[in-house]
Specification:
The chain is α+β, with helices and mostly antiparallel strands and 481 residues long. The protein is built from 14 helices and 23 strands. The chain has three domains: 273 residues, BirA Bifunctional Protein, domain 2 (2-Layer Sandwich); 113 residues, Anticodon-binding domain (Rossmann fold); 71 residues, Translation Initiation Factor IF3, CATH 3.30.110.
Amino acid sequence: MVKEEQGLTVKKSQDISEWYTQVIQKAELAEYTGVSGCMIFRPRVFAIWEKLTAFFDAEIKKLGVKNAYFPLFIPEALLKKESEHVEGFAPEVAWVTQGGHTPLSERLAVRPTSETIMYDAFAKWIQSYRDLPLKINQWVNVVRWEFKHPVPFLRSREFLWQEGHTVFAKKADAETEVLNILELYKRVFEEMLALPVIKGRKSENEKFAGADYSTSVETLTPSGKAVQAATSHHLGQRFAKSFGISFLDEKGDKSLPFQNSWGFSTRSIGAMILYHGDDKGVVIPPRVAPLHVVVVPIMFDDTKEKVVKKAHELGSKLEKAGVSVFVDDRDHYTPGWKFNEWELKGVCLRVELGPRDLDKKQAVVVRRDTGKKDFVQLDELVKFVQDQLELMQKDMFKRAQQFLAENNVHAKSWKEFEKGIKDKKLVYTPWCCTADCAEHIKTQTEGAKCLNLPFDAPKAEGKCVKCDKPAVATALFAKSY
Ligand code: 86X
């Protein structure tokens, strides 16, 4: 049997999609299966997801959100109750039609999102203003049977997410939450994944059809395609009407409540891999990394014992300080082979310890993101490692910010717009925000669309970049996953 090449056989700059496919498998992040669009999340990637969920889960609990679990199967009649929101999505719903050998009397949808099944229950639970606000979240898998070419994490048929669904007596309270959650998403991306994002409101044609308005955080990946990182919707009273959710207010009058829904998914991990990885493999920000440090003892027959002993000693000191560590004392691999393997897998720091280092009471510390090498006194190692991890987190975010800063343009004319899209940039532009115009732009640019209307973009003036209608807002355009 031919042994598979250990490292990546393609450069990121050469062919980023092939690079992405290789890095995901060779770094043992994910594995393809016999079902297109459905993949295995291996422990190295699931550990990243666990860090993200731990952070977000703790934050929403501070806001009074409670976790629950709703069924995977949604009866057809229920799914179709709010027809407007399902219409556009119908081609993506996966159905169960049979139990064993027996056809079901009613088809069951495999949940693509849980508004309908949740709001059916909310209608029973909410009677009076005392039952509000109701704030429910669930961490689950969802299925959307896409027919576009699947891309691991970024466009898969089954993925993991959280979906938050909240109900308020007052519109203003619901609207405040929409923005609070959006800010939390921004923090997940910027503080954990070291990915800068752009907050904004979805254009009318791109918003969730069941929502009064949608907000999102968006980012650009080095493939030149943008990713919608998370969404936070204000649903107004539409679902309350169709699902019969109402409450008696303080005066005893029957009122309709206001609702929100919000979600982010394992897609975030795909964006992180694309952004930060390099020709040696994946690079993972310390705050979400499954492994911070690998200690590699350099082993020679006569000194092996004491070097390995010291390596483990350092390992436990680091562990006690809250750093995750693996001491790689396997003796059937050379140090060079190990270095490559751990670089491929994105361990944040490598600590090399040889007999000569031991004599000098030092170790060599190498950073995964920059390759920078430092000789560090052993009694200063813990502090040095902690500082480097923090610095690495900050530096990775700064570099990503710089990438975003260098890859956006403000297009004043259609010519500039077309060039920006061709150059794979994010394009800020004055836009009329109409569905017709969106369609024209899409066909003439092979798929560019409005990501959002950024909150902090300058006010639009003059005409739309594409048609003669007046510009309504500064919009952010790009091709996207
Ligand atoms: C939209 C809306 C919303 C809660 C979120 O974006 C965050 C978390 N949900 C999701 N959406 C659908 O409603 C939908 C419905 C069906 Cl039936 C479908 F097949 C696919 C869908 N995709 C998205």
